[in-house]
Amino acid sequence: MKIAIIGTGNLGSSIAKGIINHKLFTSLYLSDKNTAAVKDFVNEDYVTVTSDNIEAVKASDILIFALQPRHIEKVLESVSSHITNDHVVMSVAAGFEISKIESIIGSDKNIIRVMPNTAISIRKSMTCLAANDKGNGKIELAQKIFNQLGTTLIIPEELIQAATVICASGIAFWMRLVRATTQGAIQLGFEAEQAHQLATQTCYGAASLLIESGRHPEQEIDRVTTPSGCTIEGLNAMEHQGLSSALIQGIVASFEKINQIKKS
Ligand SMILES: NC(=O)C1=CN([C@@H]2O[C@H](COP(=O)(O)OP(=O)(O)OC[C@H]3O[C@@H](n4cnc5c(N)ncnc54)[C@H](O)[C@@H]3O)[C@@H](O)[C@H]2O)C=CC1
Ligand SMILES: O=C(O)[C@@H]1CCC=N1
After folding, report:
1. CA–CA gap between residue 49 and residue 141 (Å, rounded)
2. What pLDDT, in 10s, does the model give residues 116-143?
3. Which superfamily is assigned to 164-263 in CATH?
């Protein structure tokens, strides 16, 4: 597979790391106007770091555009004449719809919107995918790549904004919950490093329990909450402060924002 990543900032470089660490390519072009984030990959075999987007497009079959919504339009326009019907064009840009991509490069191209998260660098991304009519023929190929980098789900494009909030922004939401747990642990007497370990490993255990057992969170909560015990006391205090409500409102606020980005 000849892959190019155009835009190697936070997400593009995370994707590059996942792809390089697991040798998922025959050649990999990393193209950015500022290549600082991928300078460590310069000496990797079969990896080319460049600032020439057109060179990257011409040398590759699979193009992953990892640019901010405000930049992707201009970059697509500048490489459009070099994109052929054989290319598979993937975009991770939040709120940038397939119809907009089609209007720039043509609806006869294979286009797939991919929504991974930064855990892709350690092969733990939850990645959602949606394609245009032509791209549906290539979506299994895309899924094959991203299955090597975590877990994938093919969804209708209408759900991609929601998936962006839950899976991509979700990394930040979960980080904040872990940080708050760490702050609580320090207040209860743990050193910062220990507090961090307790918080992350417990979070990992909770997610693993749900994934491996297939059970509902409330079933697992019932197994922890001893009657009149400390867990239900803590949970109820959190709910009186609006824990679930705050999370849901945050998710909805994030979703409203991404819909504004979509319209702009
Ligand atoms: N950061 C995240 O966790 C996620 C980001 N996304 C989406 O991915 C896209 C990229 O996000 P980030 O990586 O966070 O942004 P970023 O700002 O870190 O990276 C964008 C990169 O594009 C480069 N760039 C700008 N103009 C260019 C040009 N003309 N030619 C070549 N490169 C150019 C910039 O130098 C920068 O390195 C955004 O659309 C975002 O919505 C989606 C899911 C998760
Ligand atoms: O915050 C953002 O807009 C992007 C999309 C999801 C993650 N980062």
Report:
1. 24
2. 999 998 999 999 999 999 999 999 999 9
3. ProC C-terminal domain-like (1.10.3730.10)
Q: Which residue in this structure is represented by tokens 């555009």?
A: 65
Atom of ligand 2 nearest to the CA of 94: 5
Compute the distance between CA of residue 28 and CA of residue 31 in angstroms, rounded to an integer.
Answer: 10
**What CATH number belongs to 2-155?**
3.40.50.720
pTM of the full predicted structure? 0.94
Domain residue limits, the chain: 2-155, 164-263
Helices (DSSP H) in the chain: which residue ranges? 10-21, 53-58, 69-79, 98-105, 139-147, 160-163, 170-187, 192-213, 217-224, 230-240, 243-263
Question: Cα separation of 159 and 232, whole Å?
Answer: 35
Complex-level ipTM: 0.97
Q: Which of 14, 160, 161, 164 to mutate to test the pocket of ligand 2 (most atoms within 8 A of CB)?
A: 164
Pairing of strands 27-31, 47-50: parallel
Atom 5 (ligand 2) nearest CA: 94
